[in-house]
Design a protein that fits this description.
heterodimer, A: 282 residues, alpha/beta, Rossmann fold, 10 helices, 9 strands, 23% strand, B: 632 residues, Immunoglobulin-like, six-stranded antiparallel β-sheet, 5 helices, B30.2/SPRY_sf (chain B), FN3_dom (chain B), Butyrophylin_SPRY (chain B), coiled coil (chain B)
Chain lengths: 282, 632
């Protein structure tokens, strides 16, 4: 598994790098960004996986989210992969901004023509960690996951489906109950087919209801002035209700005045990294 | 006085000049800086004394004359560069040490000089008295003698007068007798010469008769008085006794009572010493003492009770006294002759009673403790000494005790090390010495520890015996219980905690019921007592509200809270306060879950605050080591 470095910039005392590799799950070239804190030069660091949202690439997080400074402070490596396979030449992949390219939804698709390449769930949970652990100074036991919007959905789903694998989880304006919102319904029917029971495996709200495993501690920030919140795409109340019922610890913060953008993410990134550090550095 | 004698004597005087003389005997001048001008090829010793200053007892600053045969490279004429005072690093500390020693010696000397003065005065007085006494004595004797002389002289005068009178009287009667004889004779002669014979015959016979009668009279020719004078024995026996008494041992002179020796007193006793500065013989001493009363009464009829002790030695321990009380003492010496005048009155003071530590008002954190106590004495004391010693892990007390002296008020903030246990006690100190130790308080520096400020509690809030659980009962309190106390919370059923005023990190936990509505956080001491916690800028708190459908949580400051949802209700809440960073964080301790952090700038010291918004209970747990996640 050869990695090619695409770029490297010194940042916050460490290095913000971008690599490219040939992915076996996705069967195409994939780029991902890696932030290496100063501590990585001398020792092993835990890894935070950041999953971006609809239309994003590996660039959005590293240029807009402001994660490098807190990562350097807490000595955490941040890996930010792309949001879907690229250049697979699948018909219809570029027709919609919320389905296909840039909208992988972190599932392993079962429907044609998506099922060959659109295996973002396995990529994120299997292939990428192996790759990272083999090529960087990491502490393989200490991984955590976070994301925004679709990436938030991905983070929650990965954490709930893999009890104990991720030491911490957090999300920014996540899609909490995709089965009940337009985005989710569109994506799931395209990737997974019309049988709704297959959708449950990728719905955080449903997964929470049947979660059993090590205790989680979920931090969710949501902008109150988020247009998608009011458009009922995100549905955090559903998740909160289930978590309250099932006693899954969640702290959900509704931030007044904030929208869905990376300006919102930037504002609370430090809090989230501190949240992850508590578990990754414990 | 030869300076050489002082040097090394008990007074240990600075003997700069002595040094000077010593060394400059070898050199030829008395100047402090001896310059040798002739350099070239000298074989004789170059004696140069480079003295900045010299003190008797410190060798490092005492420069021996050195041999400088070759000129010094820098061309300095003293040839003594290597001994440059300022090159030595240790010199400065030496200087400080010497200075301190000198200061102590000066203080000693001053007090010694003071005592000497007193002694001189008393001796002068004593000798003055003796002189006076002597003068008087001899004056008395002289007076008596002259009195006797006068008496005797007057006696003699009298006698003389008496005798002279007697003789004179005799003389007169003799004269009279002679005159009478003369008359008769003249009469007789006249008769004899008379021509008239008849007349002659008539008168001759009676005249002869009267002459015959007269001749028969015996004239007494003996002196009526003796010529010698009476010289009775002078009765000078009393003069003799007076003279004798001059040689008798006089009554003693006044003794000199010593000032109070440090550490010689206890709470109820005083050790008093005195001395006699004369060669008087003394049979016994009597020591008088009476307490010095605080209030000087207008009339002197109410003076304090005077007591007296008879002792043979020149010291005495007076017992049964009150602690921290001043006593006036004086002493007289008595021998067979009489009692000396009283010595000067000395003021002694007994040692104070030990203070009483106010356990519920002591607070601590990981690196300090604030101890408060009551004086334990009705009258003021001079200062307090706080003593602390560490307890080892095996529960043995360290033998090392650290003391903090000259604490002026009844509280002390002590710097400590974290993760240890200390035993702390306090003593009260006055001129008499330190009191016994107060009862010991154990302070543990594992975490922040505090009691509640029960004075601030709302009347409806009752606090348990141990001081850590509070209850808001269902019962209605009568209006009378709602006091007009400015310090208690009047609307919010709240109470403040007594956090140690140290601007570091503090952590405590609060245990709550699932069903109680509460506010937990921090507030300034002067937060408004008639407003709710979190409503103003003077307090920050986490608030739990119970609605029919769910639990609601707010993090209030100045009436504003962020909007958040918490899915698992915390039953044990950790509160972490960091003054430096200006943060106040809340955690669900059971889940180790962070709930919220306030960013604030604390302008003053902050107190934990707790309130119950509906009947229920709440328990404070402190003295806990803060978990790692509390202060990331």
């Amino acid at each position: 598994m050869a990695l090619t470095q695409v770029s490297s910039n010194k940042c916050a005392g460490g290095f913000q790098k971008v690599f490219e590799h040939e992915s076996t799950e996705l069967k195409c070239k994939m780029k991902f960004a890696v932030y290496l804190p100063p501590k990585a030069e001398t020792g092993k660091c835990p890894v935070l996986y950041w999953l971006s949202g609809l239309t994003c690439t590996e660039q959005n997080f590293i240029t807009k989210a402001g994660g490098q400074l807190p990562a350097a402070e807490h000595g955490i490596i941040i890996v930010a992969p792309d949001t879907s396979p690229r250049g697979c030449n699948i018909e219809g992949e570029d027709e919609n901004w919320d389905f296909g390219t840039g909208a992988g939804f972190y599932v392993d698709a079962t429907e044609d023509p998506w099922k060959t390449n659109y295996r973002m769930y396995s990529y994120i949970t299997e292939e990428l960690p192996k790759l990272i652990n083999a090529n960087f100074s990491t502490n393989p036991d200490r991984m955590s996951i976070s994301g925004h919007s679709m990436g938030g959905h991905g983070a929650l789903v990965c954490a709930l489906k893999n009890p104990g694998k991720y030491k911490a989880v957090s999300a920014f304006a996540p899609i909490c109950n995709p089965m009940q919102c337009p985005w989710g319904q569109k994506a799931f029917s395209g990737y997974l087919g019309s049988d709704r029971s297959t959708w449950e495996a990728y719905d955080a709200t449903v997964l929470a209801a049947s979660y059993s495993g090590p205790q989680l501690d979920i931090l969710i920030d949501q902008g109150r002035d988020d247009q998608f919140l009011s458009a009922s795409q995100l549905l955090p109340d559903n998740l909160i209700a289930v978590c309250s019922e099932k006693k899954i610890p969640v702290v959900f913060r509704l931030q007044p005045g904030y929208d869905h953008s990376y300006f919102f993410i930037y504002s609370f990134m430090a809090d989230h990294i501190k949240h992850h550090a508590k578990f990754l550095n414990a | 006085m030869d300076l050489f004698e002082i040097r090394g004597g008990t007074l240990d005087v600075i003997a700069e000049e002595a040094e000077h003389q010593d060394l400059s005997r070898e050199s030829t001048t008395m100047e402090s800086f001896n310059v040798t001008s002739d350099r070239g090829g000298r074989t004789t010793r170059d004696v140069s004394t480079f003295q900045r200053f010299s003190v008797d007892t410190n060798e490092s600053l005492h420069f021996e004359p050195c041999e400088a045969i070759t000129p010094s490279p820098t061309g300095a004429e003293d040839g003594n560069d290597e001994d440059d005072v300022f090159k030595e690093e240790g010199t400065e500390s030496e200087i400080v040490k010497i200075r301190n020693r000198l200061q102590a010696k000066v203080a000693e000397m001053e007090s010694f000089a003071g005592h000497l003065e007193e002694i001189f005065l008393t001796v002068e007085e004593n000798f003055g008295r003796q002189e006076q006494h002597l003068e008087q004595h001899y004056n008395d004797v002289l007076q008596t003698l002259s009195q006797r002389y006068d008496e005797r002289a007057a006696g003699l005068e009298e006698e003389k007068k008496g005798k002279l009178e007697a003789l004179y009287t005799q003389l007169l009667s003799c004269g009279q007798a002679m005159d009478a004889s003369k008359e008769l004779i003249e009469t007789a002669q006249e008769i004899y010469r008379t021509q008239d014979k008849r007349l002659f015959l008539k008168t001759v016979m009676p005249t002869i008769k009267s002459i015959e009668e007269f001749a028969k009279e015996e004239s007494d020719l003996t002196l009526t008085t003796r010529l010698e004078f009476n010289t009775p024995l002078a009765d000078l026996s009393d003069v003799k006794t007076m003279m004798d008494s001059i040689n008798v041992v006089p009554a003693p002179s006044a003794p000199v009572i010593n000032p109070q020796m440090p550490n010689s007193a206890t709470q109820t006793s005083l050790r008093v010493c005195w001395s006699l500065f004369s060669d008087d013989t003394v049979e016994y001493y009597e020591l008088y003492y009476r307490p010095v009363l605080e209030d000087k009464p207008a009339d002197s009829t109410h003076t304090a009770q005077e007591s007296k002790v008879k002792v043979k030695e020149t010291h005495c321990t007076v017992t049964d006294l009150l602690p921290n009380a001043q006593y006036e003492l004086w002493v007289t010496a008595t021998n067979t002759t009489g009692i000396s005048p009283a010595s000067e009155k000395a003021l002694y003071i007994t040692v104070p009673s030990p203070p009483v530590i106010k356990r519920r008002e002591c607070t601590s954190c990981t690196d300090a403790a604030l101890i408060r106590w009551e004086s334990g004495n009705t009258n003021p004391v001079d200062s307090y000494t706080v003593e602390l010693s560490e307890m080892g892990t095996d529960d043995t007390q360290s033998s090392v005790t650290e003391s903090i002296v000259a604490v002026p008020t009844c509280q002390c903030l002590i710097q400590l090390q974290s993760g240890r246990r200390y035993l702390i006690s306090v003593r009260a100190v006055n001129i008499g010495g330190p009191s016994d130790r107060s009862e010991v308080i154990t302070v543990s520096t594992t975490g922040t520890f505090f009691y509640l400020l029960e004075d601030t509690a709302h009347p409806c809030l009752s606090i348990s015996e141990d001081g850590f659980t509070m209850f808001y009962g269902d019962e209605e309190l009568p209006i009378s219980a709602m006091g007009l106390d400015d310090n208690t919370f009047a609307r919010c059923v709240a109470v403040l905690g007594d956090l140690i005023p140290v601007r570091g990190r503090h952590y405590w936990e609060v245990e709550v019921d699932d069903g109680s509505e509460y506010r937990i956080g921090v507030a300034y001491e002067d937060t408004e007592r008639n407003s709710y916690l979190g409503a103003k800028t003077t307090s920050w708190c986490m608030r739990h509200i119970l609605t029919p459908s769910r639990h609601k949580y707010e993090f209030l400051h100045n009436g504003w809270s962020p909007d958040l949802r918490i899915t698992v209700n915390p039953l044990r809440i950790g509160v972490a306060l960091d003054y430096e960073r200006g943060t106040l964080s809340f955690f669900n301790v059971d889940l180790e879950q962070h709930l919220h952090t306030f960013q604030c700038h604390f302008r003053n010291y902050i107190h934990p605050c707790f309130s119950l918004d509906n009947p229920g209970a709440l328990t404070v747990h402190n003295g806990i080591e803060a978990p790692e996640y509390a202060f990331i």
